[in-house]
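Researcher: Here's a chain I'd like modeled. Treat it as a single chain, no partners, no ligands.
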Amino acid sequence: MGAIHVTVNLSWSQATSEYENLFRVDTENMNSMAPAKDLKSLGFKPAGKMDYELANGQKVTYEYCGAVLQFMGDKTFGRVIMGPDGIEPILGVTALESTGITIDPANKQLKRLPAIPLK
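Model: Modeled as a single isolated chain. Structure tokens:
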């Protein structure tokens, strides 16, 4: 399946400006990610650090921040990893699930569920 992209707007009350970019949808990642340099330049502040394991097995430590993520007419709040310079922004599965959006593999598009499952 080809990559799916969606425009995402990140905001936070402490930030001086919003961050908006085309994010690659990645259901293999729990959290979303954007370049730390870009986020910090807009006033996003790290809330902490966490260790992550890359696909190749390498362990790295990244800072993360909280943000309001807005896409496809919905808003959710979540952790955004402050990634390396030049990283393609990633929209993780937690943001998708919390807004009731899933991937339709047949059409290679995002689609809204009729209701968010609570079971």
